[in-house]
Amino acid sequence: MSPREYLTSLLADARRAVVFTGAGISTESGIPDFRSPGGIWSRMKPIYFDEFVASEEKRREAWTRTFSGTMRWVGAKPNKGHYAVARLIARGRATAVITQNVDNLHQESGVPVSQVVELHGNASYATCLDCGLRHELEVLKQSFLGRGEIPSCRDCGGLVKTATISFGQAMPQNKMERATQETLGCDLFIVLGSSLVVYPAAAFPLMAKENGAKLVIINREPTEQDDFVDLVIHDDIGPILSAAVPPD
Questions:
Q1: Which residue is catalytic, options 106, 120, 135, 234?
Q2: Which of 64, 87, 193, 218 has a CA between 20 and 30 Å from the CA of residue 226?
Q3: For this structure, is 120 an active site residue?
Q4: Average pLDDT for consecutive 10-residue bins of the chain (248 residues)?
């Protein structure tokens, strides 16, 4: 049985799969990853959470990056891989998508918001760090670009930041708990486009495997967890997954 045939067989047998995605699924939508040569962090230094909170200069720099399109999330569209994942959810084969991505492309591809567990937040809106109120980026953009106003909360006056988890910022406990529950409840865990080097998120695949689930990794480059899986495919995600989960 070829790797592609085995993948199709695993998906057919799964009753409660979980999909875990990293930057590699979105590079096929034109979004650069973070750590490879030419990636985002090779071109600009990340702004740490403590820097954002303590420095008006750093906050202004962060918002300039957001509204200049430097991060290249704005305008990206879901690709074949995202739509194949959405079909797995719609057909009841997978219960959740646990993602390290912040680009909102799983939701845009049709996965219900309630079934996307965003470990690192979401770059498509902002929140107040004090009261948690949601702020839409388009409204903040007008004030920032038009009057140079660094966003603050319209309710409490607190600091407003894109709803992403920055370096040095605590992981969202509720999301980690939900991801753990989904991982321990699955019979198939599928990793798509993650280098599996960022912890604690990278612990979930082995957690699933140790709990008895089958483990699949589809990633262009090898990972440190390749030796522990039931199936590993080093190739582009979109074509592989689309063939295994074809449209109706």
A1: 120
A2: 87
A3: yes
A4: 94 96 93 63 80 97 87 78 98 96 96 97 95 95 92 96 94 96 98 93 97 97 96 96 94
